[in-house]
Amino acid sequence: EVQLVESGGGLVQPGGSLRLSCAGSGFTFSGNAMSWVRQAPGKGLEWVSVISGSGDSTYYADSVKGRFTISRDNSKNTLYLQMNSLRAEDTAVYYCAREAPTFDYWGQGTLVTVSS
Amino acid sequence: AIRMTQSPSSFSASTGDRVTITCRASQGISSYLAWYQQKPGKAPNLLIYAASTLQSGVPSRFSGSGSGTDFTLTISSLQSEDFATYYCQQYYNYPRTFGQGTKVEI
Asked: Are A39 and A56 spatial neighbours (Cβ–Cβ below 8 Å)?
């Protein structure tokens, strides 16, 4: 059974940093691109970033480019999202999702709140 | 970025109704379109990919059609568990983009 479990969310002040993790199991982790998708409270879905299975290719939404960094450790079956210079508008539930190439499996989400 | 526009944004329906949601892409995306269902407090669930292919385990009352710029999601007979928000998403290129969502309410 495919499982994706996010962690690392929490309350952070504007300008602060946070690192999210997503542990995958039940599939060949290194064989799949992985994405982060977020959802602000009461709003729709926004794709954030993707990383290839090998980790050598990444893309970012313009809204996070230069502030967020996606990475993965295939030896640990774990995906990461390093978020720097956080803003109030980054407040959202962050989901990791397997991209195959549609988002066929999702984690349960982790809430990031940016507030002073 | 490709803009995805869904209509309507929300509507009320009853159990047993036939429901159609439309999604329009700002440029042609061939059949690189997916539909997701999301219930409150839960992660989205993939329903349809390649515009019309039903994901494994999804009831056959769901169907999708379209190509190019215009797409539809149809629920042939609405069930109580189908009251949710539905999103279309293009995977023709990056950035991946979603429609704004369509909330189906009782």
From this structure: no
Closest residue, chain A, to B34 (C-alpha):
A102
Is A29 in a helix, a strand, or coil?
helix
In this structure, what token pair is assigned to residue A41?
Answer: 């409270």
Nearest CA in chain B to A106: B43
The b/e string for A33-55 (b: 16+ C-beta within 10 A; e otherwise) is bbbbbbbeeeeebbbbbbbebeb
Nearest partner of B92 among B28, B38, B43, B47, judged by Cα: B28
pLDDT tens, residue by residue, A8-51: 999 999 999 999 999 999 999 999 999 999 999 999 999 999 99
Is the distance from CB of A35 to CB of A20 less than 8 angstroms?
no
Distances (CA, A) of A94 to A10, A19, B24, B63: 11, 11, 26, 28
Determine whether the interchain pair A103/B34 forms a contact, defined as Cβ–Cβ distance below 8 Å: yes
Residue A10 CB-density burial (10 A; 0-12 exposed, 13-18 middle, 19+ buried): exposed
